[in-house]
Automatic annotation (TrEMBL):
It comes from Lactobacillus xujianguonis. The keyword Ligase applies. InterPro entries: ProX/PRXD1, YbaK/aa-tRNA-synt-asso_dom_sf, YbaK/aa-tRNA-synth-assoc-dom. This is Prolyl-tRNA synthetase associated domain-containing protein. Keywords: Aminoacyl-tRNA synthetase, Ligase, Protein biosynthesis. It comes from the Bacteria.
Length: 162
């Protein structure tokens, strides 16, 4: 789904959001420069996989938090983890590096990639800023609405302490 299709989907489901345009950003740090005065959780999104490539995960963490890989292995009940490759991003989510967003999961036709939200991100704010599959836009949406829309399309959404 492209950005307009996602916004149309949110409108169709009567989801309240605010949209902000900005120059293209490729990291959460760059995005934070344009969102510093906005009232929502500032997060980074990681696309990771098991070393054998059998399982993939979309992880959402507060921008200031580093992923504890050992804790993630324990919390996700899986084997050793690593970052997904550019090929994985293109193959599974139809995106390029720098565009990772929970909305990318709407491009996962297999519905096998769970969204795992770090609990620290959930308590930071009731709202989160995410890209609608376009790194020149950020939308402010409630965590509840984000998880509701992804769940309604068959995606598992979990919260963990990573």
């Amino acid at each position: 789904m492209n950005s307009q299709e996602i916004l149309d989907l949110l409108d169709k489901h009567n989801i309240i959001y605010q949209s902000y345009d900005h120059p293209a950003v490729f990291t959460s740090e760059e995005a934070d420069k344009y969102a510093k005065n906005q009232d929502f959780a500032k997060c980074k999104n990681l696309f990771i996989k098991t070393r054998n490539g059998q399982q993939l995960f979309m992880i959402v963490l507060p921008t200031s938090k580093k992923l504890d890989w050992k804790k993630a292995v324990e919390q996700l009940h899986t084997s050793s983890l690593t970052m997904a490759t550019e090929e994985d991003l293109a193959d599974k989510l139809q995106i390029t590096p720098g565009s990772v967003s929970p909305f990318n999961l709407l491009n996962d036709s297999t519905n096998t990639i769970p969204l795992v939200i770090d609990q620290d991100a959930l308590v930071e704010n009731d709202y989160v800023g995410v890209h609608p599959n376009d790194n020149t836009k950020t939308i402010r949406i409630s965590w509840t609405d984000l998880t509701r829309i992804l769940s309604s399309y068959g995606h598992l959404v979990e919260d963990r302490q990573l």
